[in-house]
TrEMBL record:
GO terms for cellular component: membrane; outer membrane-bounded periplasmic space. This is Efflux transporter, RND family, MFP subunit (Modular protein). It comes from Candidatus Nitrospira inopinata. The keyword Transport applies. Keywords: Ion transport, Signal, Transport. Residues 545-615 form the YtkA-like domain. Residues 132-261 form the CusB-like barrel-sandwich hybrid domain. Residues 266-341 form the CusB-like beta-barrel domain. One of its GO terms (biological process) is plasma membrane copper ion transport. Residues 193-226 form the CusB-like three alpha-helical bundle domain. Belongs to the membrane fusion protein (MFP) (TC 8.A.1) family.
Length: 638
Protein backbone atom coordinates (compact mmCIF):
# COMPACT_ATOMS: atom_id res chain seq x y z
CA UNK A 1 0.00 0.00 0.00
CA UNK A 2 2.87 2.37 0.86
CA UNK A 3 4.38 1.62 -2.55
CA UNK A 4 1.10 2.51 -4.29
CA UNK A 5 0.80 5.69 -2.28
CA UNK A 6 4.32 6.79 -3.20
CA UNK A 7 3.56 5.99 -6.81
CA UNK A 8 0.40 8.11 -6.73
CA UNK A 9 2.28 11.00 -5.21
CA UNK A 10 4.98 10.66 -7.86
CA UNK A 11 2.35 10.73 -10.62
CA UNK A 12 0.72 13.81 -9.10
CA UNK A 13 4.06 15.55 -8.76
CA UNK A 14 4.92 14.85 -12.39
CA UNK A 15 1.50 16.12 -13.47
CA UNK A 16 1.89 19.36 -11.52
CA UNK A 17 5.39 19.99 -12.86
CA UNK A 18 4.25 19.22 -16.41
CA UNK A 19 1.34 21.61 -16.10
CA UNK A 20 3.62 24.38 -14.84
CA UNK A 21 6.16 23.75 -17.63
CA UNK A 22 3.37 23.82 -20.23
CA UNK A 23 2.06 27.14 -18.97
CA UNK A 24 5.57 28.61 -18.89
CA UNK A 25 6.29 27.39 -22.43
CA UNK A 26 3.04 28.90 -23.64
CA UNK A 27 3.95 32.19 -22.03
CA UNK A 28 7.33 32.44 -23.78
CA UNK A 29 5.81 31.33 -27.09
CA UNK A 30 3.19 34.03 -26.74
CA UNK A 31 5.81 36.59 -25.83
CA UNK A 32 7.68 35.91 -29.11
CA UNK A 33 4.52 36.53 -31.11
CA UNK A 34 3.49 39.84 -29.48
CA UNK A 35 4.87 41.90 -32.36
CA UNK A 36 3.01 39.76 -34.93
CA UNK A 37 -0.28 40.00 -33.08
CA UNK A 38 -0.01 43.76 -32.57
CA UNK A 39 -1.07 44.32 -36.19
CA UNK A 40 -4.28 42.33 -36.09
CA UNK A 41 -7.28 44.27 -37.40
CA UNK A 42 -10.90 43.55 -36.65
CA UNK A 43 -14.25 45.25 -36.98
CA UNK A 44 -15.76 44.15 -33.62
CA UNK A 45 -15.02 45.72 -30.28
CA UNK A 46 -14.15 43.66 -27.26
CA UNK A 47 -12.35 45.48 -24.46
CA UNK A 48 -11.00 42.40 -22.75
CA UNK A 49 -14.46 41.23 -21.65
CA UNK A 50 -14.67 37.65 -20.44
CA UNK A 51 -10.94 37.27 -19.64
CA UNK A 52 -10.74 39.93 -16.92
CA UNK A 53 -10.57 37.25 -14.24
CA UNK A 54 -7.20 36.03 -15.64
CA UNK A 55 -4.96 38.60 -13.91
CA UNK A 56 -2.15 39.94 -16.01
CA UNK A 57 -3.39 38.51 -19.39
CA UNK A 58 -3.08 41.88 -21.05
CA UNK A 59 -2.35 40.45 -24.50
CA UNK A 60 -5.70 38.68 -24.74
CA UNK A 61 -7.29 42.10 -25.11
CA UNK A 62 -6.24 42.09 -28.79
CA UNK A 63 -8.82 39.39 -29.67
CA UNK A 64 -11.28 41.83 -31.18
CA UNK A 65 -14.13 40.66 -33.34
CA UNK A 66 -13.94 37.06 -32.15
CA UNK A 67 -17.49 35.92 -31.28
CA UNK A 68 -17.90 33.84 -28.14
CA UNK A 69 -19.47 30.42 -28.10
CA UNK A 70 -22.97 30.67 -26.70
CA UNK A 71 -23.26 34.40 -27.37
CA UNK A 72 -24.56 35.87 -30.62
CA UNK A 73 -22.86 39.17 -29.93
CA UNK A 74 -21.13 41.07 -27.18
CA UNK A 75 -24.40 42.78 -26.35
CA UNK A 76 -25.46 39.51 -24.69
CA UNK A 77 -22.86 40.07 -21.98
CA UNK A 78 -23.68 42.68 -19.33
CA UNK A 79 -21.11 45.46 -19.78
CA UNK A 80 -18.99 46.56 -16.86
CA UNK A 81 -18.95 50.29 -16.12
CA UNK A 82 -16.23 52.18 -17.95
CA UNK A 83 -13.91 53.52 -15.29
CA UNK A 84 -11.29 54.95 -17.65
CA UNK A 85 -12.24 58.51 -16.76
CA UNK A 86 -12.86 57.82 -13.06
CA UNK A 87 -10.60 59.52 -10.51
CA UNK A 88 -8.12 57.46 -8.50
CA UNK A 89 -9.83 55.40 -5.82
CA UNK A 90 -13.33 55.63 -7.32
CA UNK A 91 -15.42 52.47 -7.08
CA UNK A 92 -18.75 51.34 -8.51
CA UNK A 93 -21.03 49.05 -6.53
CA UNK A 94 -24.11 47.33 -8.00
CA UNK A 95 -27.47 47.84 -6.33
CA UNK A 96 -27.58 44.32 -4.91
CA UNK A 97 -24.15 44.74 -3.33
CA UNK A 98 -25.09 48.16 -1.92
CA UNK A 99 -28.05 46.59 -0.20
CA UNK A 100 -26.01 43.68 1.13
CA UNK A 101 -23.26 45.75 2.73
CA UNK A 102 -25.62 48.51 3.88
CA UNK A 103 -24.36 51.56 1.99
CA UNK A 104 -26.30 54.67 3.04
CA UNK A 105 -25.93 58.25 1.79
CA UNK A 106 -27.11 61.63 3.05
CA UNK A 107 -26.65 65.27 1.99
CA UNK A 108 -24.43 67.65 3.94
CA UNK A 109 -26.15 70.54 5.71
CA UNK A 110 -25.51 73.42 8.09
CA UNK A 111 -26.41 72.79 11.72
CA UNK A 112 -25.66 74.04 15.22
CA UNK A 113 -22.58 72.30 16.57
CA UNK A 114 -21.39 72.27 20.17
CA UNK A 115 -18.13 70.42 20.60
CA UNK A 116 -17.60 68.25 23.64
CA UNK A 117 -14.00 67.79 24.70
CA UNK A 118 -13.54 64.72 26.86
CA UNK A 119 -10.52 64.24 29.08
CA UNK A 120 -9.46 62.96 32.48
CA UNK A 121 -8.89 65.23 35.49
CA UNK A 122 -7.51 65.06 39.02
CA UNK A 123 -9.28 66.64 42.00
CA UNK A 124 -7.29 69.16 44.04
CA UNK A 125 -8.05 71.79 46.65
CA UNK A 126 -8.80 75.47 46.08
CA UNK A 127 -5.42 77.13 46.53
CA UNK A 128 -7.09 80.38 47.54
CA UNK A 129 -8.38 78.69 50.71
CA UNK A 130 -5.09 77.00 51.63
CA UNK A 131 -3.26 78.25 54.75
CA UNK A 132 -0.20 77.26 56.77
CA UNK A 133 0.26 77.70 60.52
CA UNK A 134 3.81 78.71 61.49
CA UNK A 135 5.55 80.44 64.42
CA UNK A 136 7.57 83.64 64.08
CA UNK A 137 9.50 82.92 67.23
CA UNK A 138 11.21 79.88 68.67
CA UNK A 139 9.72 77.83 71.49
CA UNK A 140 8.39 74.52 72.71
CA UNK A 141 4.98 73.01 71.95
CA UNK A 142 3.13 72.35 75.19
CA UNK A 143 -0.40 71.09 74.49
CA UNK A 144 -1.99 69.99 71.17
CA UNK A 145 -5.77 70.35 70.66
CA UNK A 146 -6.04 69.28 66.99
CA UNK A 147 -4.10 66.06 66.89
CA UNK A 148 -5.03 64.33 63.58
CA UNK A 149 -4.88 64.89 59.83
CA UNK A 150 -8.23 65.12 58.04
CA UNK A 151 -10.02 66.72 60.95
CA UNK A 152 -12.21 69.71 60.08
CA UNK A 153 -11.48 72.93 61.96
CA UNK A 154 -13.19 76.31 62.21
CA UNK A 155 -11.56 79.69 62.06
CA UNK A 156 -10.51 80.76 65.58
CA UNK A 157 -10.47 77.21 66.97
CA UNK A 158 -7.43 76.56 69.27
CA UNK A 159 -4.77 74.34 67.70
CA UNK A 160 -1.95 74.12 70.27
CA UNK A 161 -0.08 76.04 73.01
CA UNK A 162 3.57 77.08 72.90
CA UNK A 163 6.11 78.29 75.46
CA UNK A 164 8.44 80.94 74.06
CA UNK A 165 11.01 82.85 76.17
CA UNK A 166 11.16 85.62 73.54
CA UNK A 167 7.41 86.02 73.65
CA UNK A 168 7.49 86.13 77.45
CA UNK A 169 10.03 88.98 77.38
CA UNK A 170 7.91 90.90 74.88
CA UNK A 171 4.86 90.58 77.14
CA UNK A 172 6.87 92.00 80.06
CA UNK A 173 8.04 94.90 77.87
CA UNK A 174 4.45 95.67 76.94
CA UNK A 175 3.30 95.63 80.57
CA UNK A 176 6.20 97.92 81.53
CA UNK A 177 5.28 100.36 78.76
CA UNK A 178 1.69 100.48 80.01
CA UNK A 179 2.89 101.09 83.58
CA UNK A 180 5.23 103.88 82.44
CA UNK A 181 2.45 105.57 80.47
CA UNK A 182 0.21 105.52 83.54
CA UNK A 183 2.95 107.13 85.66
CA UNK A 184 3.44 109.92 83.13
CA UNK A 185 -0.26 110.59 82.70
CA UNK A 186 -0.08 113.49 85.22
CA UNK A 187 3.23 114.83 83.89
CA UNK A 188 3.17 118.40 82.57
CA UNK A 189 5.63 117.39 79.89
CA UNK A 190 3.72 116.58 76.73
CA UNK A 191 6.78 115.12 75.10
CA UNK A 192 7.12 112.58 77.90
CA UNK A 193 3.48 111.55 77.50
CA UNK A 194 3.88 111.15 73.76
CA UNK A 195 6.99 109.06 74.26
CA UNK A 196 5.16 106.74 76.68
CA UNK A 197 2.27 106.32 74.24
CA UNK A 198 4.68 105.48 71.41
CA UNK A 199 6.42 102.89 73.56
CA UNK A 200 3.10 101.16 74.33
CA UNK A 201 2.10 101.16 70.67
CA UNK A 202 5.45 99.72 69.64
CA UNK A 203 5.26 96.89 72.18
CA UNK A 204 1.67 96.12 71.15
CA UNK A 205 2.62 95.96 67.46
CA UNK A 206 5.48 93.59 68.24
CA UNK A 207 3.04 91.22 69.95
CA UNK A 208 0.72 91.36 66.93
CA UNK A 209 3.58 90.56 64.57
CA UNK A 210 4.17 87.43 66.61
CA UNK A 211 0.52 86.42 65.98
CA UNK A 212 -0.76 87.39 69.41
CA UNK A 213 -4.42 88.35 68.93
CA UNK A 214 -6.05 91.55 70.18
CA UNK A 215 -8.13 89.46 72.57
CA UNK A 216 -4.97 87.94 74.03
CA UNK A 217 -3.39 91.38 74.39
CA UNK A 218 -6.48 92.67 76.19
CA UNK A 219 -6.37 89.66 78.52
CA UNK A 220 -2.70 90.42 79.22
CA UNK A 221 -3.60 93.99 80.19
CA UNK A 222 -6.33 92.80 82.53
CA UNK A 223 -4.14 90.11 84.05
CA UNK A 224 -1.20 92.44 84.65
CA UNK A 225 1.46 89.77 84.30
CA UNK A 226 2.92 87.77 81.41
CA UNK A 227 1.62 84.30 80.53
CA UNK A 228 4.49 81.87 79.73
CA UNK A 229 2.20 79.81 77.48
CA UNK A 230 0.56 81.22 74.33
CA UNK A 231 -2.41 79.56 72.58
CA UNK A 232 -2.29 79.45 68.75
CA UNK A 233 -5.65 79.52 66.88
CA UNK A 234 -6.72 78.33 63.39
CA UNK A 235 -6.45 81.21 60.88
CA UNK A 236 -9.20 79.77 58.60
CA UNK A 237 -11.82 77.04 58.34
CA UNK A 238 -11.11 73.84 56.46
CA UNK A 239 -9.62 70.38 56.68
CA UNK A 240 -6.26 69.66 58.31
CA UNK A 241 -4.01 68.39 55.49
CA UNK A 242 -0.76 68.35 57.49
CA UNK A 243 0.08 68.30 61.20
CA UNK A 244 3.60 68.59 62.63
CA UNK A 245 2.75 69.93 66.11
CA UNK A 246 3.73 67.38 68.78
CA UNK A 247 3.79 67.91 72.57
CA UNK A 248 7.30 68.90 73.72
CA UNK A 249 8.59 69.57 70.19
CA UNK A 250 11.04 72.46 69.82
CA UNK A 251 10.25 74.66 66.85
CA UNK A 252 12.29 77.26 65.02
CA UNK A 253 10.82 80.43 63.54
CA UNK A 254 9.13 79.63 60.20
CA UNK A 255 8.45 75.96 61.00
CA UNK A 256 5.15 74.80 59.46
CA UNK A 257 3.07 73.05 62.11
CA UNK A 258 -0.31 72.79 60.30
CA UNK A 259 -1.69 73.04 56.77
CA UNK A 260 -5.41 73.72 56.39
CA UNK A 261 -7.34 73.54 53.09
CA UNK A 262 -10.84 74.79 52.36
CA UNK A 263 -12.50 71.95 50.38
CA UNK A 264 -15.91 73.60 49.97
CA UNK A 265 -14.72 74.42 46.45
CA UNK A 266 -12.76 71.83 44.44
CA UNK A 267 -10.34 72.45 41.63
CA UNK A 268 -9.95 69.78 38.93
CA UNK A 269 -6.88 69.90 36.70
CA UNK A 270 -7.33 68.31 33.26
CA UNK A 271 -5.08 68.07 30.20
CA UNK A 272 -6.38 68.80 26.70
CA UNK A 273 -4.62 68.27 23.38
CA UNK A 274 -2.87 71.13 21.63
CA UNK A 275 -5.41 71.02 18.79
CA UNK A 276 -8.28 71.57 21.26
CA UNK A 277 -6.92 74.66 23.00
CA UNK A 278 -8.56 77.18 20.65
CA UNK A 279 -12.04 75.84 21.43
CA UNK A 280 -11.71 76.12 25.23
CA UNK A 281 -12.38 79.45 26.96
CA UNK A 282 -12.68 80.67 30.52
CA UNK A 283 -16.22 80.50 32.00
CA UNK A 284 -17.33 77.69 29.65
CA UNK A 285 -19.49 75.04 31.35
CA UNK A 286 -17.97 71.71 32.33
CA UNK A 287 -19.13 68.48 33.93
CA UNK A 288 -17.39 65.58 35.63
CA UNK A 289 -18.34 62.04 36.59
CA UNK A 290 -16.61 59.67 38.99
CA UNK A 291 -16.48 55.92 39.33
CA UNK A 292 -17.24 56.43 43.03
CA UNK A 293 -20.61 58.06 42.22
CA UNK A 294 -22.17 56.16 39.29
CA UNK A 295 -24.99 58.02 37.59
CA UNK A 296 -24.14 61.32 39.30
CA UNK A 297 -22.80 64.32 37.39
CA UNK A 298 -21.17 67.41 38.93
CA UNK A 299 -21.37 70.77 37.15
CA UNK A 300 -18.76 73.52 37.15
CA UNK A 301 -16.94 75.94 34.86
CA UNK A 302 -13.52 76.59 33.39
CA UNK A 303 -11.66 79.15 35.52
CA UNK A 304 -8.12 79.09 34.13
CA UNK A 305 -6.12 77.89 31.10
CA UNK A 306 -2.44 77.44 31.87
CA UNK A 307 -0.06 79.42 29.65
CA UNK A 308 2.47 76.61 29.10
CA UNK A 309 2.50 73.44 26.99
CA UNK A 310 3.69 69.99 28.05
CA UNK A 311 6.22 69.39 25.28
CA UNK A 312 6.32 65.61 25.80
CA UNK A 313 2.58 64.91 25.76
CA UNK A 314 1.65 68.01 23.65
CA UNK A 315 -1.09 68.94 26.11
CA UNK A 316 -2.21 72.08 27.92
CA UNK A 317 -3.58 72.04 31.47
CA UNK A 318 -7.01 73.49 32.20
CA UNK A 319 -8.45 74.25 35.65
CA UNK A 320 -12.13 73.59 36.25
CA UNK A 321 -13.87 74.75 39.43
CA UNK A 322 -16.70 72.82 41.09
CA UNK A 323 -18.72 73.58 44.23
CA UNK A 324 -18.18 70.88 46.85
CA UNK A 325 -20.45 71.61 49.82
CA UNK A 326 -20.80 67.96 50.85
CA UNK A 327 -17.08 67.28 50.37
CA UNK A 328 -17.79 64.43 47.95
CA UNK A 329 -14.91 65.43 45.72
CA UNK A 330 -11.78 64.20 47.46
CA UNK A 331 -8.33 65.54 46.54
CA UNK A 332 -6.54 62.98 44.38
CA UNK A 333 -9.68 61.43 42.84
CA UNK A 334 -9.77 60.83 39.07
CA UNK A 335 -12.79 61.98 37.08
CA UNK A 336 -14.00 61.97 33.46
CA UNK A 337 -14.27 65.63 32.48
CA UNK A 338 -16.43 66.98 29.65
CA UNK A 339 -15.88 70.56 28.46
CA UNK A 340 -18.74 72.22 26.59
CA UNK A 341 -17.45 74.65 23.95
CA UNK A 342 -19.39 77.55 22.46
CA UNK A 343 -22.14 76.55 20.01
CA UNK A 344 -21.58 77.51 16.36
CA UNK A 345 -23.59 77.09 13.16
CA UNK A 346 -21.51 75.45 10.46
CA UNK A 347 -21.40 72.73 7.79
CA UNK A 348 -21.43 69.33 9.51
CA UNK A 349 -21.37 65.64 8.59
CA UNK A 350 -21.98 62.57 10.76
CA UNK A 351 -18.86 61.29 12.51
CA UNK A 352 -19.44 57.87 10.93
CA UNK A 353 -18.95 59.40 7.48
CA UNK A 354 -15.31 60.36 8.12
CA UNK A 355 -12.38 57.98 7.70
CA UNK A 356 -9.17 59.02 9.45
CA UNK A 357 -6.08 57.64 7.71
CA UNK A 358 -3.64 59.13 10.19
CA UNK A 359 -2.39 61.63 7.59
CA UNK A 360 -5.69 62.97 6.30
CA UNK A 361 -9.45 62.63 6.63
CA UNK A 362 -11.64 61.20 3.87
CA UNK A 363 -15.32 61.00 2.99
CA UNK A 364 -16.90 59.12 0.09
CA UNK A 365 -18.93 61.22 -2.35
CA UNK A 366 -22.05 59.59 -3.75
CA UNK A 367 -22.05 60.35 -7.50
CA UNK A 368 -25.19 58.33 -8.19
CA UNK A 369 -25.83 54.96 -9.84
CA UNK A 370 -23.59 53.21 -7.33
CA UNK A 371 -20.48 55.27 -8.09
CA UNK A 372 -18.43 56.54 -5.13
CA UNK A 373 -15.33 58.72 -4.98
CA UNK A 374 -13.07 59.44 -1.98
CA UNK A 375 -12.58 63.12 -1.17
CA UNK A 376 -10.18 64.74 1.29
CA UNK A 377 -11.72 67.08 3.84
CA UNK A 378 -10.40 69.44 6.50
CA UNK A 379 -12.23 69.00 9.78
CA UNK A 380 -12.85 71.38 12.65
CA UNK A 381 -14.80 70.96 15.86
CA UNK A 382 -16.55 67.76 16.87
CA UNK A 383 -19.66 66.99 18.86
CA UNK A 384 -20.85 63.65 20.13
CA UNK A 385 -22.31 62.61 16.75
CA UNK A 386 -21.17 65.20 14.17
CA UNK A 387 -18.04 66.95 12.95
CA UNK A 388 -17.45 70.33 11.30
CA UNK A 389 -16.19 70.38 7.69
CA UNK A 390 -14.03 73.42 6.99
CA UNK A 391 -12.83 72.49 3.48
CA UNK A 392 -13.61 69.88 0.83
CA UNK A 393 -17.44 69.84 0.82
CA UNK A 394 -20.31 72.21 0.24
CA UNK A 395 -23.90 72.13 1.42
CA UNK A 396 -25.99 69.55 -0.43
CA UNK A 397 -23.15 67.20 -1.39
CA UNK A 398 -24.21 63.58 -0.93
CA UNK A 399 -21.78 61.52 1.13
CA UNK A 400 -21.71 57.93 2.36
CA UNK A 401 -22.68 57.61 6.03
CA UNK A 402 -22.37 53.85 6.53
CA UNK A 403 -20.23 51.00 5.16
CA UNK A 404 -17.61 53.56 4.11
CA UNK A 405 -14.88 51.45 5.67
CA UNK A 406 -15.59 48.68 3.18
CA UNK A 407 -15.68 51.18 0.32
CA UNK A 408 -12.33 52.58 1.45
CA UNK A 409 -10.76 49.13 1.55
CA UNK A 410 -12.02 48.39 -1.96
CA UNK A 411 -10.88 51.80 -3.18
CA UNK A 412 -7.33 51.29 -1.94
CA UNK A 413 -7.13 47.77 -3.31
CA UNK A 414 -8.39 48.98 -6.68
CA UNK A 415 -5.83 51.81 -6.72
CA UNK A 416 -2.99 49.45 -5.83
CA UNK A 417 -4.11 47.02 -8.53
CA UNK A 418 -4.25 49.78 -11.13
CA UNK A 419 -0.72 50.93 -10.35
CA UNK A 420 0.60 47.40 -10.76
CA UNK A 421 -1.09 46.99 -14.15
CA UNK A 422 -3.27 44.11 -13.01
CA UNK A 423 -6.88 43.36 -13.86
CA UNK A 424 -9.06 40.82 -12.14
CA UNK A 425 -11.07 39.87 -9.17
CA UNK A 426 -10.35 42.45 -6.52
CA UNK A 427 -13.14 42.81 -3.99
CA UNK A 428 -16.16 44.47 -5.51
CA UNK A 429 -14.67 44.40 -9.00
CA UNK A 430 -15.70 40.75 -9.09
CA UNK A 431 -19.34 41.83 -9.00
CA UNK A 432 -18.78 44.20 -11.89
CA UNK A 433 -17.22 41.54 -14.14
CA UNK A 434 -19.02 38.41 -13.02
CA UNK A 435 -21.20 38.23 -16.13
CA UNK A 436 -18.16 38.63 -18.37
CA UNK A 437 -15.81 36.00 -17.02
CA UNK A 438 -18.59 33.43 -16.73
CA UNK A 439 -18.99 33.50 -20.54
CA UNK A 440 -17.43 30.48 -22.29
CA UNK A 441 -14.28 31.21 -24.26
CA UNK A 442 -14.75 28.70 -27.09
CA UNK A 443 -11.61 29.59 -28.98
CA UNK A 444 -10.53 27.73 -32.07
CA UNK A 445 -13.29 25.11 -32.16
CA UNK A 446 -15.87 26.58 -34.48
CA UNK A 447 -16.46 29.61 -32.35
CA UNK A 448 -13.47 31.79 -33.26
CA UNK A 449 -13.02 33.52 -36.56
CA UNK A 450 -9.41 34.52 -36.79
CA UNK A 451 -8.34 37.26 -39.18
CA UNK A 452 -6.99 36.09 -42.55
CA UNK A 453 -3.52 34.70 -42.34
CA UNK A 454 -3.71 34.23 -38.60
CA UNK A 455 -5.76 31.06 -38.32
CA UNK A 456 -2.71 28.90 -37.77
CA UNK A 457 -1.54 31.01 -34.90
CA UNK A 458 -4.73 30.28 -32.98
CA UNK A 459 -4.34 26.49 -33.09
CA UNK A 460 -2.65 26.55 -29.73
CA UNK A 461 -5.87 27.90 -28.18
CA UNK A 462 -7.63 24.55 -28.60
CA UNK A 463 -8.81 23.06 -25.41
CA UNK A 464 -9.43 26.39 -23.66
CA UNK A 465 -13.09 25.53 -23.00
CA UNK A 466 -14.21 26.16 -19.47
CA UNK A 467 -11.43 28.49 -18.39
CA UNK A 468 -13.89 30.78 -16.63
CA UNK A 469 -12.51 29.67 -13.29
CA UNK A 470 -8.87 30.57 -14.03
CA UNK A 471 -9.00 33.91 -12.22
CA UNK A 472 -5.79 35.17 -10.74
CA UNK A 473 -3.31 33.68 -13.33
CA UNK A 474 -0.82 36.46 -12.61
CA UNK A 475 2.26 36.85 -14.71
CA UNK A 476 0.51 35.69 -17.95
CA UNK A 477 0.96 39.01 -19.82
CA UNK A 478 1.27 38.93 -23.55
CA UNK A 479 -0.34 35.53 -24.20
CA UNK A 480 -1.81 36.72 -27.50
CA UNK A 481 -0.40 33.69 -29.29
CA UNK A 482 -1.29 31.12 -26.65
CA UNK A 483 0.78 28.45 -28.43
CA UNK A 484 1.56 25.25 -26.67
CA UNK A 485 -1.63 25.44 -24.62
CA UNK A 486 -3.28 22.28 -25.98
CA UNK A 487 -4.93 20.14 -23.38
CA UNK A 488 -6.19 23.02 -21.24
CA UNK A 489 -9.79 21.75 -21.31
CA UNK A 490 -11.61 21.42 -18.04
CA UNK A 491 -9.39 23.72 -16.04
CA UNK A 492 -12.24 25.04 -13.93
CA UNK A 493 -11.35 25.82 -10.31
CA UNK A 494 -7.79 26.97 -11.03
CA UNK A 495 -8.26 30.26 -9.18
CA UNK A 496 -5.26 31.94 -7.64
CA UNK A 497 -2.50 30.25 -9.74
CA UNK A 498 -0.02 32.80 -8.40
CA UNK A 499 3.06 30.69 -7.92
CA UNK A 500 0.75 27.58 -7.97
CA UNK A 501 -0.41 28.30 -4.38
CA UNK A 502 -4.08 28.48 -5.18
CA UNK A 503 -4.75 25.13 -6.89
CA UNK A 504 -8.16 24.74 -5.31
CA UNK A 505 -9.97 21.48 -5.71
CA UNK A 506 -6.84 19.30 -5.83
CA UNK A 507 -7.62 17.74 -2.46
CA UNK A 508 -9.56 15.02 -4.23
CA UNK A 509 -6.63 14.02 -6.44
CA UNK A 510 -4.91 10.77 -5.37
CA UNK A 511 -2.12 11.42 -2.93
CA UNK A 512 -2.99 15.09 -2.40
CA UNK A 513 -4.79 14.71 0.91
CA UNK A 514 -1.56 14.34 2.87
CA UNK A 515 0.19 17.38 1.35
CA UNK A 516 -0.83 19.79 4.11
CA UNK A 517 2.56 19.53 5.69
CA UNK A 518 4.45 20.62 2.58
CA UNK A 519 6.06 24.09 2.68
CA UNK A 520 3.67 26.79 1.53
CA UNK A 521 0.62 24.52 1.93
CA UNK A 522 -0.17 25.46 5.55
CA UNK A 523 -3.11 27.75 6.30
CA UNK A 524 -3.60 30.25 9.12
CA UNK A 525 -6.13 29.87 11.88
CA UNK A 526 -7.59 32.35 14.30
CA UNK A 527 -7.27 32.00 18.04
CA UNK A 528 -8.41 33.75 21.17
CA UNK A 529 -6.61 37.08 21.65
CA UNK A 530 -5.12 37.70 25.09
CA UNK A 531 -1.65 39.21 25.29
CA UNK A 532 0.10 40.89 28.24
CA UNK A 533 3.20 43.04 27.82
CA UNK A 534 5.29 45.30 30.05
CA UNK A 535 6.07 48.65 28.43
CA UNK A 536 7.91 51.49 30.24
CA UNK A 537 7.13 49.87 33.58
CA UNK A 538 3.39 49.65 32.86
CA UNK A 539 1.53 46.40 32.19
CA UNK A 540 -0.71 46.33 29.09
CA UNK A 541 -3.17 43.44 28.68
CA UNK A 542 -4.79 43.39 25.22
CA UNK A 543 -7.94 41.33 24.54
CA UNK A 544 -10.88 41.35 22.12
CA UNK A 545 -14.58 40.64 22.32
CA UNK A 546 -15.44 38.15 20.88
CA UNK A 547 -12.30 36.46 22.18
CA UNK A 548 -11.68 35.00 18.72
CA UNK A 549 -12.13 38.04 16.43
CA UNK A 550 -14.08 37.78 13.19
CA UNK A 551 -14.60 40.19 10.31
CA UNK A 552 -17.13 42.80 11.33
CA UNK A 553 -17.61 44.72 14.56
CA UNK A 554 -15.10 43.84 17.29
CA UNK A 555 -14.56 45.34 20.75
CA UNK A 556 -10.89 46.04 21.52
CA UNK A 557 -10.02 46.01 25.23
CA UNK A 558 -6.87 47.17 27.02
CA UNK A 559 -6.21 46.93 30.74
CA UNK A 560 -3.48 49.27 32.04
CA UNK A 561 -1.73 48.94 35.41
CA UNK A 562 1.14 51.02 36.78
CA UNK A 563 4.50 49.64 37.97
CA UNK A 564 3.07 49.03 41.45
CA UNK A 565 0.23 46.92 40.01
CA UNK A 566 -2.56 49.47 40.55
CA UNK A 567 -5.04 50.16 37.71
CA UNK A 568 -4.48 53.34 35.70
CA UNK A 569 -7.83 55.11 35.36
CA UNK A 570 -6.82 58.56 34.12
CA UNK A 571 -5.17 57.64 30.82
CA UNK A 572 -6.17 58.50 27.27
CA UNK A 573 -6.07 55.37 25.08
CA UNK A 574 -6.10 55.42 21.27
CA UNK A 575 -6.46 52.35 19.01
CA UNK A 576 -5.07 52.71 15.44
CA UNK A 577 -5.79 49.63 13.31
CA UNK A 578 -4.91 48.61 9.75
CA UNK A 579 -4.01 45.66 7.53
CA UNK A 580 -0.35 45.36 6.43
CA UNK A 581 -1.04 45.42 2.70
CA UNK A 582 -0.54 48.00 -0.09
CA UNK A 583 -3.08 50.81 -0.24
CA UNK A 584 -4.69 50.10 3.14
CA UNK A 585 -5.23 53.18 5.30
CA UNK A 586 -5.22 53.50 9.06
CA UNK A 587 -8.38 53.91 11.10
CA UNK A 588 -8.52 54.92 14.73
CA UNK A 589 -10.88 55.00 17.68
CA UNK A 590 -10.54 56.57 21.12
CA UNK A 591 -11.13 54.05 23.89
CA UNK A 592 -13.26 54.90 26.91
CA UNK A 593 -12.44 53.90 30.46
CA UNK A 594 -15.00 51.53 31.95
CA UNK A 595 -13.63 50.44 35.31
CA UNK A 596 -10.48 49.29 37.11
CA UNK A 597 -8.10 50.47 34.38
CA UNK A 598 -10.01 48.77 31.52
CA UNK A 599 -10.37 50.78 28.30
CA UNK A 600 -12.67 49.69 25.45
CA UNK A 601 -13.13 50.81 21.85
CA UNK A 602 -15.35 49.39 19.10
CA UNK A 603 -13.80 48.90 15.64
CA UNK A 604 -14.87 47.46 12.28
CA UNK A 605 -12.66 44.82 10.65
CA UNK A 606 -13.74 44.86 7.01
CA UNK A 607 -12.27 41.48 6.08
CA UNK A 608 -10.43 38.51 7.46
CA UNK A 609 -6.66 38.38 7.61
CA UNK A 610 -3.78 39.76 9.64
CA UNK A 611 -4.51 43.07 11.37
CA UNK A 612 -2.17 45.36 13.30
CA UNK A 613 -3.45 47.44 16.23
CA UNK A 614 -1.20 50.23 17.52
CA UNK A 615 -2.08 51.23 21.08
CA UNK A 616 -1.13 54.68 22.40
CA UNK A 617 -1.57 55.21 26.16
CA UNK A 618 -1.17 58.80 27.38
CA UNK A 619 -1.00 59.28 31.15
CA UNK A 620 -0.97 62.88 32.45
CA UNK A 621 2.55 64.03 33.21
CA UNK A 622 4.22 61.02 31.56
CA UNK A 623 5.53 60.27 28.05
CA UNK A 624 3.06 58.33 25.83
CA UNK A 625 3.32 54.53 25.87
CA UNK A 626 3.08 52.99 22.37
CA UNK A 627 2.81 49.26 21.57
CA UNK A 628 1.74 47.19 18.53
CA UNK A 629 -0.30 43.98 18.54
CA UNK A 630 -0.56 41.62 15.52
CA UNK A 631 -3.30 39.01 15.28
CA UNK A 632 -5.43 37.07 12.79
CA UNK A 633 -9.09 37.93 12.12
CA UNK A 634 -11.37 35.18 10.82
CA UNK A 635 -13.79 35.60 7.94
CA UNK A 636 -13.56 36.58 4.33
CA UNK A 637 -14.80 40.13 4.62
CA UNK A 638 -17.30 40.82 1.82
Amino acid sequence: MNHDMRRKRLVVGVAVVSLFVGITAGFFAAHRMMSDMSGMQSSGEMKGRGMEGMKGMAGVGDMKGMPMEGAKSMSDIEPAPDMSDAPSGAVTVPAVARQLIGVRSAPTAHATLQEEIRTVGTVGYDERGFTQVTLKTSGWVRKVFVDSIGRPVRKGEPLFTVYSPDLLVTQDEYLLAIKTRAQLAESPLDEAKAGADALVASARERLRLWDVTDAQIAALERRGHADPVLTVYAPSSGIVMKREALPGKYVEPGTTLYEIADLSTAWISADIYESEVAAVKVAQPASVTFAAYPGEMFSGKVTYIYPTLNTEARTVRVRVEFPNPELKLKPGMYGNVTLQTDAIRTLVVPKEAVLNTGLRQLVFMDRGQGRYEPASVKLGRRSQDAVEVMEGLKEGDRIVTSANFLLDAESKLASASSMQGMMGRIGMGDWQMRGAYEAKMAMGEGGVSAPPGRAGEMDSMKGMHGMSGMQGMQGMEGMSGMRGMEGMKGMHGMEGMKGMEGMKGMEEMPGMKDMSGMPGMETGSTKAISETRKVAGHTLTFTTLPKTPKAGEVLLRLRVTNPSGKPVTNAQVLFVYTMPMPGMTDSKVTALHTKDGLYEGKVMFGMGGTWVVTVTVTIPGQPPVIEKFHFLVAGGGM
